[in-house]
Amino acid sequence: MPSPAPPKPTPSELELLRILWQLGAATAKQVHEAIAAERPDMTAATVLRLLQLMHAKGLLLRDESQRAHVYTPAQPQDSLQTSLVSDLITKAFSGSGKALVLAALRGHVSKKEREEIQAILSGENTGQKDGGKAS
Prior knowledge:
mainly alpha; Arc Repressor Mutant, subunit A; 2 domains; 3-stranded antiparallel sheet; 3 strands; 56% helix
């Protein structure tokens, strides 16, 4: 029997995960303080409720040894992002990573970012892993 697919976070849950990946382990109050500047509409009660739901879904781990529970992401950032991108490639791009990359590059990449991407690709072509820079 295959293992169940990891839970997919909602946009609001992704915002909280992004903050927790930056902070590491944090209480609901710390998460609320970190998100308050960009999301003043998100109250402390809303943050707490979202964290509780995310814990129930398996997106977060919760340390209950202190009065204020401490939350941490259940998956590393790169692991969850890879899962989400794989799902997007399958659903929206018929399994084609190339189609995803081309769609992402169309009008959404600055000249500097294009140069960085080219340097990474050049490094792969020459066998270097540091974007083509000499070690």
